[in-house]
Amino acid sequence: MSKLYTIKELSKELKIPESTLRYYRDRFEEFIPTVGKGRKRRYKEEAIDVFKLIIEGYEQDLNFRQIKDKLIKKLSVSEGSSTKESDDIKNVLIEKQNEIIRLLIEYINEKDELKREIKLLKHKIAKMEEILVRLIKDYKSFKKGLIEKSKQDVIDI
Questions:
Q1: Which DSSP letter does residue 36 get?
Q2: Which among 23, 29, 33, 62 could bridge 66 via Cys, Cβ 3.0 to 4.6 Å?
Q3: Domain boundaries defined on the chain
């Protein structure tokens, strides 16, 4: 069984600050072989090579997308990388992609539902405006009738 490393141990091994490694880990997490979660997370020995590739990419002024492409290429065709590891990486990428698609569908459905609710509210507001206009007309007519009746009452007196 290969040795498992903490982020601190990797930092010493690679001579790079822990915070930088955490940043790299978070940006390229699908490529970093780990065991456990949270504070109990440990990094497999292969993670050293992955971090080295990331560090090398940033030293060459490559952007995130270029480094990611380089990792995909390197990890899928490297001699030391087994087909299972390559398949695991592909499966993780597919899972992430499926999760993103699921979230997008959820977002679209929520957006459509909100559009329906807005349309319904606009319809209700239009109905309320019609009622309000009718009430104002009725009020004006009633007021006019009162004024005419009071004028008539004054004339009759």
A1: S
A2: 62
A3: 1-81
